[in-house]
Design goal:
By secondary structure, the protein is an alpha+beta fold. The chain has one domain. The chain is about 45% helix and about 25% strand. It contains four helices and four strands; from the N terminus they run ββααααββ. It has helices spanning about 20, 25-35, 45-55, 60-65, and strands spanning about 1-5, 10-15, 65-70, 80. The chain has a four-stranded antiparallel beta sheet with strand order 2-1-4-3, with no helix packed on it. It starts with a strand and ends with a strand.
């Protein structure tokens, strides 16, 4: 997984294994946060399935160059997360 952060003065790229960010533990934490802060009804099992599918389809997503997150602020900062 690559996280690209561009500010006005500098650009940074962070790389770390996708399985470290997308696994059963993070799915459980995300489920707890979603249940606490939003009206979204997703079970932990559904989030674990989502994490498994992201890890399984990682090679296809990498070849297609599809970003997971691409956010740009009005101030010019940009965050791009891709596999």
């Amino acid at each position: 997984m690559r996280i690209y952060v561009a500010e006005r003065t500098k650009k940074r790229t962070f790389r770390f294994p996708t399985r470290l960010a997308v696994n059963r533990l993070t799915a459980a934490i995300a489920g707890a946060v979603l249940r606490k802060n939003t009206d979204v009804e997703l079970s932990t099992a559904a989030l674990v399935r989502l994490a498994r599918e992201i890890n399984r389809s990682k090679a296809n997503l990498r070849r297609m160059h599809v970003p997971l997150v691409d956010v740009e602020s009005s101030g010019g900062e940009r965050v791009l997360i891709s596999l």
